[in-house]
Specification:
By secondary structure, the protein is an alpha+beta fold. It folds into three domains: 33-127, no CATH class; 135-236, no CATH class; 244-347, no CATH class. It has five helices and 23 strands. It has helices spanning 23-29, 61-72, 127-133, 152-168, 194-208, and strands at 33-34, 38-44, 50-52, 55-57, 74-75, 80-92, 95-106, 109-124, 139-145, 177-183, 186-191, 211-222, 225-236, 244-247, 250-257, 262-266, 272-274, 284-287, 293-300, 304-308, 315-319, 330-336, 339-343. The strands form six sheets. It has a five-stranded mixed beta sheet with strand order 10-11-9-13-12, covered by helices on one side. Strand 19 and strand 20 (304-308) form a beta hairpin. Helix 4 (152-168) crosses helix 5 (194-208). The termini are far apart. The relative contact order is 0.08.
């Protein structure tokens, strides 16, 4: 009687697998893949986001089907060279059927499986929409100006930077606005995220200068941890890049911003200095950047140029700025202290 190897199930002779079974018995006992017949998923009825591993995200179509297959497809541990293909058959708005084909190699034998899975969607409400509906907010952003009311154009300019910031970054479901509106002297917004408020505040200071005052108020506790609400008060300076100021008895141009205050440049000579926000409280705007005009030079000599008055179109003489290169055919001028003055190139409203 032969003492050679044999299948431990049916007694068949080799070839055998590593667990001493013939191919027929291996196929009878091993399934390449398994999937549930039904997959249930949640979709927010307000924003349309789907719940994925505890988080809510914007995903749909084949990407969503692929994700659900990856989450639910179980493959034999010994399988190699596994391939998966699928097709989506829409049934109605909340139901689809997934046709999944799986191929692979187990113990040098090729296997294949097919699955028909019903993908059903239930309506739910994500935490973000729940918070929005409940007027939830973590931070208050106050837009103000130092010592005056913000003009409509200024408010629009400040507010637009929030939309620009949000469009340029990765979407975050907590970066939403619960409420906003005009208040005396400025604009207030209730924001869903403290991080959103702080990031916007940094952008405002970098672009417009000014200061931000931050205060935090405890509003309750959650599982023994204090819950606080943040208030950020942004104060825009009463002047902007390119404005001409009367400061300490001299005329200065606002050149750029730094954290502690603006950097100014003298109108009549090359002198550049930084000042604190407190120092600048004694300054006044004598010609804002929007009030300035770029005019063509009609005639020039070494010290002055003839230009056309932009208000009455008469020819007037203007002293050339200290940084005139002798070749430019234009000047920026401003009506300052009852006369037209040329403004150095350094004051053309370009922020560092």
């Amino acid at each position: 009687m032969s003492s050679g190897a044999f299948c431990i199930v049916c007694g068949a002779p080799p070839p055998l697998t590593s667990d001493r079974m013939c191919e027929t018995c291996l196929r009878a006992r091993v399934k390449l893949s398994t999937m549930p017949e039904r997959i249930q998923q949640d979709r927010c009825s307000k924003c349309g986001f789907f719940e994925v591993r505890g988080r809510w995200t914007e995903i749909e179509g084949d990407s969503l089907a692929d994700l659900r297959i990856r989450e639910n497809l179980m493959v034999e541990d010994r399988s190699k060279q596994v391939s998966v293909s699928f097709a989506v058959e829409p049934i109605d708005e909340r139901t689809s059927r997934l046709h999944v084909d799986v191929g692979g190699v187990v113990e040098s034998h090729e296997f294949s499986d097919s699955h028909s899975v019903l993908l059903q969607t239930s309506n739910a409400v994500c935490p973000t929409c729940t918070r929005k509906a409940g007027s939830y907010f973590e931070a208050v952003m106050q837009l103000r100006s130092a010592g005056r009311r913000l003009e409509e154009e200024e408010l629009e300019s400040l507010r637009s930077t929030l939309d620009e910031m949000l469009s340029a970054m990765e979407p975050d479901p907590m970066f939403f606005i619960s409420e906003e509106g005009k208040v005396t002297g400025g604009w207030d917004l209730k924001l869903g995220s403290k991080a959103m408020a702080r990031r916007w505040a940094r952008d405002l200071v970098r672009k417009f200068g000014g200061t931000v005052k931050e205060t935090s108020t405890v509003i309750g506790a959650n599982d023994g941890i204090e819950v606080s609400r943040l208030t950020l008060s942004y104060r825009k300076p009463a002047y902007g890049i390119g404005d001409v100021l009367n400061f300490r008895g001299s005329l200065w141009l606002v050149e750029s911003w730094q954290k502690e205050g603006p950097i100014l440049r003298k109108m009549n000579r090359f002198e550049r200095s930084g000042f604190s926000w407190r120092d600048m409280e004694a300054s006044s705007v004598v010609c804002s950047y929007p009030e300035q005009h770029v005019v063509s030079i009609l005639n020039r000599d070494s010290s002055a140029a003839e230009v056309m008055d932009p208000t009455d179109f008469k020819v007037v003489a203007v002293a050339l700025p200290y940084d005139d290169d002798g070749n430019s055919d234009e000047l920026r001028i401003g009506f300052i202290e009852d006369e037209w003055l040329a403004i150095p190139v350094a004051g053309r409203g370009e922020s560092n």
